[in-house]
Amino acid sequence: MSYLNNFIIIDDDKLNNKLCKTILEKTYPDSNIVDFTDPVKGLEYVSDKFSDPKSDEYAILLLDIMMPVMNAWDFLEKFDRQLEIVKKRVKIYILSSSIDSLDMKKAQENKYVEYYLIKPLTKESIKLIVHVLNRKISE
């Protein structure tokens, strides 16, 4: 069990997704990285991929706030309806350019959001996230 193997990026900005993928590939070259510009498709992927009780895969999901079809808050509301096994295996981090304190507070109050990151993703921030999560699952 490790959070090093799977990363999911959900952001309508293709350039940001490419940047995140590049950073993740350089930091964790053997990882599986998928990205979605459509949060609905991203949620479907999460639901399908992490609902198998025979699997022991975990993932870190980097979620943008402002997206046209479904924003982060809508996504999190739908994520709440997922199977418990999915909610346990997928750890969500907001990755946003918003420095609005209301967004940060709303993220902090959401039980599925681990932390709020300001874009751009850095090698240091992703290493810290993975380290903390892997310590939690090994305890």
Task: Spell out the blueprint of helices and strands.
Elements: E1 6-10, H1 14-27, E2 32-36, H2 39-49, E3 59-63, H3 72-79, H4 84-89, E4 90-96, H5 101-109, E5 113-118, H6 123-138
Parallel strand pairs: 1-2, 1-3, 3-4, 4-5
CATH architecture name? 3-Layer(aba) Sandwich
Shape by Cα distribution: globular
Strand content: 15-25%
Structural class: alpha/beta
The topology string of helices and strands comes to EHEHEHHEHEH
The figure for the number of domains is 1
Helix content: 40-55%
Radius of gyration: 14 Å
The CATH class assignment is: Alpha Beta
Per DSSP, the total helix count is 6
Give me the CATH fold name: Rossmann fold
CATH superfamily: Response regulator
Structure description:
With 139 residues, this protein is an alpha/beta fold. It has one domain (6-131): Rossmann fold, CATH 3.40.50. 46% of the residues lie in helices and 20% in strands. It has six helices and five strands; from the N terminus they run βαβαβααβαβα. It has helices at residues 14-27, 39-49, 72-79, 84-89, 101-109, 123-138; strands at 6-10, 32-36, 59-63, 90-96, 113-118. It has a five-stranded parallel sheet, with helices on both faces. The radius of gyration is 14 Å and the shape is globular. The N and C termini lie close together (12 Å). The mean pLDDT is 93.
